[in-house]
Write a structure and sequence with these properties.
Blueprint (H helix, E strand, L loop, with lengths): L3 H6 L7 H9 L5 E5 L6 H6 L15 E4 L3 H14 L5 E4 L5 H7 L6 E4 L1 H9 L10 E4 L2 H6 L3 H8 L7 E6 L16 E4 L2 H4 L5 E7 L6 H11 L5 E4 L3 H13 L5 E3 L5 H12 L5 E4 L14 E4 L6 H8 L9 E7 L12 E3 L13 E6 L9 H11 L7 E6 L4 E6 L3 H7 L4 E2 L2 E2 L2 E3 L2
Parallel strand pairs: 1-6, 1-7, 2-4, 2-5, 3-4, 5-6, 8-13, 8-14, 9-11, 9-12, 10-11, 12-13
Antiparallel strand pairs: 15-17, 15-20, 16-17, 18-19
Helix pairs in contact: 6-8
């Protein structure tokens, strides 16, 4: 299959060396460990070789991709549906209707992406058959182990009686492989930072917070310095995220928050707003350190150092991705000590706070999605033809199962809402409002 049109569909001009190596290695090696930093394109690296491994006349699940989180499952599903033209792809995960998943299994997907717990549920209910699976991919498998899914993954793998190929991906090497991993002929593709060298485009700055200055005050000063770039601020606890959010709200600084205590639809919405530019500042726990599709982050700010160096590596991996430049800032108090491996220059906080600009984009929410037969062109038609905005005033559109989101220039959004107040999509009245 010719790759050029597929890559063009993904707005990719060329494969990276890691992806090229995977494309040539995965079809001929049956047991592969791919080590590569967060954000380096591992998903594409293992999906491309599948193009020639899937059989059109096979009506059962052929490829099983096990992931640690719903967010990663959705990310892989999106890329898979763009690449594997003609093959059915489904993602199963917690928080999603098991009934909907069972109905989808009436015609099993060629590629199934799922979290360990949800897979075990369907296997125990006997609603899922995996006896035709030839390829198993354990994506971010070390994170699945950290999350305590070893028993679930072992249970699932016992059901793969015709397994021919096993692919493991991770950003870091683990000390000991679990027993269910075949290690006797494990072939390594090592593109980890320790092998290929540190990121030359990643700049790191350590800033000592002045004595008696609250870290939230220090953060405000720093944000004023980097205000025109997208930024992630990492906290160790969700309570800290909320405290910083409260302070930012008091100062009327636009931002989003992301942590495990939020409802799944709230987490999805803030990631959509971050991707489309409506939000350029995200306050988060380590839940956003890996496994999420968050492109074009220019600054990573450690409000608090993580509990271990591995997590620090994953946090920093959210910037300087795919040969882009990036900046990491460490806000340090007197008792904080950076690991010896961190090579950071000393920096200082600005003397005064600079007001952060408001984003030129806002996000519209639509109360209809794929399950309502709504697609991107329906939304484009409503906004351009009925709303009267120009093409360059419409940004990224995301259509989910039961809701949709569209980025629109802030300067036209209120006029647009007035024009489409009584309009319909597919002859159905749909609620449209600014997402917040």
């Amino acid at each position: 299959m010719t790759l050029t049109p597929l890559l063009q569909r993904l707005n990719i001009s060329a494969l990276t060396p890691m992806q090229e190596a995977s494309l040539s290695t995965l079809p001929v090696k049956n047991n592969v460990l791919l080590l590569s930093p967060t954000g380096s394109g591992k998903t594409l690296a293992y999906l491309l070789p599948l193009l020639n491994l899937l059989e059109k006349n096979n009506t059962q699940v052929q490829v099983l991709i096990i992931v640690p989180s719903r967010e990663l499952a959705l990310q892989i599903e999106q890329v898979s549906k763009q690449l594997l033209t003609g093959f059915k792809v489904n993602a199963f995960y917690g928080g999603h209707s098991t009934l909907t998943e069972r109905h989808s299994l009436a015609e099993p997907p060629a590629v199934l992406i799922a979290t360990p717990g949800r897979l075990c549920h369907h296997l125990r209910k006997k609603s899922l058959q995996l006896n035709q699976v030839k390829v198993l991919i354990l994506d971010e498998f070390d994170k699945s182990l950290e999350a305590g899914f070893e028993e679930e993954m072992a249970f699932v793998i016992k059901h793969l009686h015709r397994l021919q190929k096993q692919i493991l991906t991770s950003a870091t090497r683990i000390a000991e492989m679990p027993k269910f991993i075949r290690t006797n002929d494990l072939f390594e593709l090592d593109f980890s930072e320790s092998r290929v060298g540190s990121k030359s485009l990643l700049q790191q700055t350590a800033i000592q917070v002045p004595h008696r200055m609250d870290k939230s005050d220090a953060l405000l000063l720093l944000l004023g310095k980097v205000h025109h770039h997208s930024s992630l601020v990492f906290c160790n606890r969700r309570e800290e995220v909320q405290q910083i959010s409260d302070r930012l709200q008091k100062e009327k600084i636009p931002h989003g928050i992301y942590h495990g205590g939020l409802e799944q639809n709230e987490r999805e919405k803030v990631l959509i707003r971050l991707r489309n530019g409506s939000v350029t500042l995200l306050i988060t726990t380590d839940l956003a350190a890996r496994g999420l599709d968050i492109p074009d982050i220019e600054n990573v700010i450690h409000l608090a150092l993580p509990l271990n160096e591995e997590t620090l590596v994953h946090r920093n991996g959210r910037t300087a991705r795919m040969e882009a430049s990036g900046h990491v800032f460490y806000l340090l108090e007197a008792e904080d000590t950076l690991p010896a491996s961190v090579k950071a220059e000393s920096g200082e906080l600005p003397n005064a706070f600079k007001v952060l600009p408001v984003s030129e984009w806002k996000t519209l929410y639509f109360s209809a999605g794929k399950k309502d037969k709504v697609n991107k062109m329906d939304i484009v038609g409503m906004l351009l033809q009925k709303g009267g905005i120009q093409k360059d005033e419409l940004g990224k559109i995301d259509v989910l199962d039961h809701q949709s989101y569209a980025a629109v220039k802030s300067k036209v959004i209120h006029q647009l809402l007035n024009k489409i107040a009584n309009e319909k999509i597919k002859n159905k009245k749909v609620k449209v409002e600014i997402a917040s």
